[in-house]
Amino acid sequence: MAVTFDREQYPFLDKVKNQPGRGTMWTPDFDNHFPHQNQTKHCWANYVEFHKCKLVKGEESPVCRKFFRTYKSLCPLEWVEEWDGQRERGVFPGQQVWQHLENKQE
Fold first, then answer.
1. How far apart are CA 73 and CA 25, in angstroms?
2. Sign of CA dihedral 29, 33, 34, 36
3. Can you tell me the distance from the alpha carbon of 16 to that of 9, in angstroms, rounded to the nearest whole number?
4. How far is CA 37 from CA 31, 64, 72, in A?
5. What is the pLDDT of residues 10-63, one digit of tens each?
6. Which of 16, 65, 72 has the alpha carbon at shortest distance from 43?
7. Minimal CA–CA distance to 51: which of 59, 39, 60?
8. Phi, psi angle pair for 9, to nearest 5°
9. What is the pLDDT of residue 60?
10. Degrees (nearest 5) of the Cα angle 39, 34, 29?
11. Per-residue exposure over 62-88, b if at least 16 CB sit within 10 Å of its own CB, e if not
């Protein structure tokens, strides 16, 4: 689903990376796994699935890009920054989900 916006009112949105097109904002489709308004689990699941997908199919895969756009749309920046730091330190709680995939690639 794409939502248009007024470029004069929101000029900074033209500079946002990873948007599907200029003049539109991408929002995730409805996911029946997460039917309620609280999207915390939806955010978490897509963050974890993106990093798992990235190891298997590569970051530019269309499937991975959808996970990326979804978690970027739903997750607060502070959470993503914290999770990225945890992944770098090897203490991310969801890391066991893709840890076996990293071992297979070595």
1. 9
2. positive
3. 15
4. 11, 24, 17
5. 555 555 444 455 555 566 676 676 666 777 888 999 999 999 998 889 888 899
6. 72
7. 59
8. -80, -35
9. 87
10. 85
11. eebebbbbbbbbbbeeeeeeebeeeee
pTM of the model: 0.63
First to last CA, the chain: 39
| Secondary structure letter of residue 7 according to DSSP | T
Task: Tell me if 48 sits within 8 A of 71, measured CB to CB.
Answer: no
Least-confidence region, from 10-14, 83-87, 90-94: 10-14
Structure-token match 């992944």, residue found: 87
Tokens of 69: 């756009």
Structure tokens at 90: 């090897």
